[in-house]
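Input structure tokens:
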């Protein structure tokens, strides 16, 4: 049982089966406590997980990357099962907002995904990005294989030379990824808070408005 259901008023749990692919698959795997290197439905697609503050803007950035086939936002690196947005925003579940991508390694390398990540985040900021602060907004690269970890370690060694302050971004093995509520998925593409849809076209370089 989720610990927070005992503390807060009852809140509807996320129905992962209603999210559509890939959220439904990711939710099913999370319930089984599994962290996969590849999609079950499409084994040619590899998994990668990144946390870069608020997950809306980071997801749109990855939607635009050629070779990224699917994206989902959610919560990872925490011990609680089936967390909700409200619970994660309390800062008490241990999770961070994250994006899990399914990518085709024949079209997009893991290095390409790291490029997108480091182009968007300030890796020296502790527990936050931009105007969002709290442990739920900490940044991280969470690897799904030994190969990803090797590549990421090498990149971290290079990146730290670009900054005077120490790198705060986590580099850890991926834990279970719990997809977020359906309204959060592809949020900015669907219009965000302002109802102004932002392009998810591959290769798009339009400035991402983080809240819509």
């Amino acid at each position: 049982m989720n610990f927070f259901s005992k503390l807060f008023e009852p809140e509807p749990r996320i129905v992962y089966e209603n999210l559509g692919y890939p959220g439904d698959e990711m939710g099913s795997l999370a319930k089984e406590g599994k962290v996969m290197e590849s999609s079950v439905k499409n084994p040619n697609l590899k998994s990668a997980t990144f946390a870069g503050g608020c997950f809306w803007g980071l997801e749109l950035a990855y939607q635009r990357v050629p070779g990224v086939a699917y994206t989902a936002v959610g919560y990872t690196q925490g011990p609680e099962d089936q967390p909700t947005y409200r619970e994660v925003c309390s800062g008490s579940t241990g999770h961070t907002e994250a994006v899990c991508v399914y990518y085709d390694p024949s079209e997009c390398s893991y290095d390409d995904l790291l490029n997108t990540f480091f182009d968007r985040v300030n890796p020296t900021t502790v527990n936050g990005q931009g105007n969002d602060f709290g442990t739920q907004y900490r940044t991280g690269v969470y690897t799904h294989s030994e190969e990803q970890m090797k590549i990421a370690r090498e990149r971290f060694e290079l990146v730290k030379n670009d900054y005077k302050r120490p790198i705060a971004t986590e580099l850890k093995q991926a834990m279970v990824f719990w997809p977020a509520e359906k309204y959060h998925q592809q949020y900015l593409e669907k219009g965000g808070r302002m109802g102004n849809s932002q392009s998810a076209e591959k290769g798009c370089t339009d400035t991402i408005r983080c809240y819509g």
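DSSP finds five helices and eight strands in the chain. The two ends are 35 Å apart (CA to CA).
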